[in-house]
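On clarity, I found the account of how folds are encoded harder to follow than it need be. Since the whole study asks how a given chain folds, the encoding of that fold should be made plain. The format is easy to grasp once an entry is in front of the reader. For illustration, here is how one protein appears when written out as sequence plus structure tokens.
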Amino acid sequence: PAPKAEIAVAPAIAEVQPQAGISEVEALALAKKRNCFVCHMMDKKGVGPAWKDIAAKYRGDAGALARMENKIVKGGSGAWGSMAMPSQSQVSEAERTLFAKFILNLK
């Protein structure tokens, strides 16, 4: 029989470490469920900023978590260019907190 082909894992996903109360699997499932990948990627700019760029920009900023949670629920513009982030009010408060912590802890 033919040897089994190895399944390649995208480097952006493979580099993620479990962080801040939400595992990589949970974070990526939540992002897929809430359609985050339509605009964001882990380590490349898409329509919106890369999550790793967000983490780097706000590393050490004590108010970043609250601002990020607020931006998820209310949307906003100006921090990363002219493209506005639409409101994501369907994301629960618990999901916002977990996901914002996950992103802010990316390296």
Q: What stands out?
A: Residues 5-20 have pLDDT under 50 and may be disordered. The two ends are 42 Å apart (CA to CA). The helical segments are 11-14, 24-33, 51-58, 64-74, 93-104. The CA atoms of residues 1 and 62 lie 57 Å apart.
